């Protein structure tokens, strides 16, 4: 997960400054976002008494995703 987060930030950093935000420059972030959504949906489907652990996992992944987005915005505003 950390690899996807770092890859997303590096992808934006390496993009051409004239076209920094394009579908091609955010594929790593999109992959991270889709992974978080998939885990969240999978956890919500589980009804075996692990709700608290699932909630912590989802919260952790959402924080990684949100931190990555913040880092990407920092690169774009620099």
List keywords for this structure.
3 helices; single chain; 76% helix; elongated; mainly alpha; 78 residues
Task: Explain what this protein looks like in three dimensions.
With 78 residues, the protein is mainly α. The chain has one domain (2-77). The protein is built from 3 helices and no strands. The longest helix is centred in the C-terminal third of the chain and has 27 residues, at 51-77. The protein is elongated and about 50 Å long. The two termini are 25 Å apart.
Quick recap:
The chain is mainly alpha-helical and 78 residues long. The protein has three helices and no strands.
Q: How far apart are the first and last residues' alpha carbons, in Å?
A: 25 Å
Strand pairing plus helix content: what structural class?
mainly alpha
Number of domains: 1
What average pLDDT do the residues reach?
Answer: 83
The topology string of helices and strands comes to HHH
Helix content: over 70%
Task: Please write out the topology.
Layout: H1 2-14, H2 27-45, H3 51-77
């Amino acid at each position: 997960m950390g690899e996807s987060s770092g890859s997303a930030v590096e992808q934006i950093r390496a993009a051409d400054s004239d076209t920094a935000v394009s579908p091609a420059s955010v594929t790593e972030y999109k992959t991270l976002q889709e992974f978080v959504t998939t885990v969240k949906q999978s956890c919500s489907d589980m009804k075996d008494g692990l709700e608290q652990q699932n909630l912590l996992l989802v919260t952790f992944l959402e924080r990684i995703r949100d931190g990555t987005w913040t880092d990407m915005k920092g690169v774009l505003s620099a």
